[in-house]
Amino acid sequence: MLNIVKEEKAGRFMPWKKEYVLGIPLVDKQHKVLVGLTDDLYEACREGVVSAEATFREASHIVVDYVKIHFSTEEKIMDKTGYPDAPAHKGEHRAFVAKFLKELADFEDGKAFVYYDFAHFLKDWILNHVSVNDKKMVDYVLHSVGNRVSGENRAG
Q1: pTM higher than 0.85
Q2: How far apart, in whole angstroms, are the C-alpha atoms of residue 86 and residue 19?
Q3: How far is Cα of residue 43 from the mean position of the Cα atoms in its chain?
Q4: How far does CA 92 lie from the centroid of its chain?
Q5: Is 118 exposed, middle or buried (0-12, 13-18, 19+ CB in 10 A)?
Q6: What is the pLDDT of residues 96-149, one digit of tens each?
Q7: Contact 64, 100 (CB under 8 A)
Q8: Which residue, of 52, 69, 98, 151, is most buried by count of CB atoms within 10 Å of its CB?
């Protein structure tokens, strides 16, 4: 069984850290789940191929479903706020899903698969995407919403 949410703890491959919090609670919660799934995959690799295979099967299907939910959440936020970099951000989401599904198909087809490499790919992508692209989006959204609320308060 996967242990999806892990707090910052020494020795973990990808523990959740406070600095990953961006300021939109639903998005932060979803990022925390993705971090936990990535950590589970890596931990399974340390336990051996049989464990990695079983955990990868479980985690990969959860990640595919969860990523769809998470990306949909972010994209709805971008659309509602008129985020100007939405097309590029959505493109990154599509590229990630395509890469993930290709890796999953290769795994399912029995092609050579290196779990550690895949765990590192997930970690690097998530951390880079969250710390750069999602942060930029959230900063825009919070600023945009803050300005609208301030303007409504002044007008009223």
Answers
A1: no
A2: 23
A3: 18
A4: 12
A5: buried
A6: 999 999 988 988 888 887 878 888 999 999 999 999 999 999 999 998 876 654
A7: yes
A8: 52
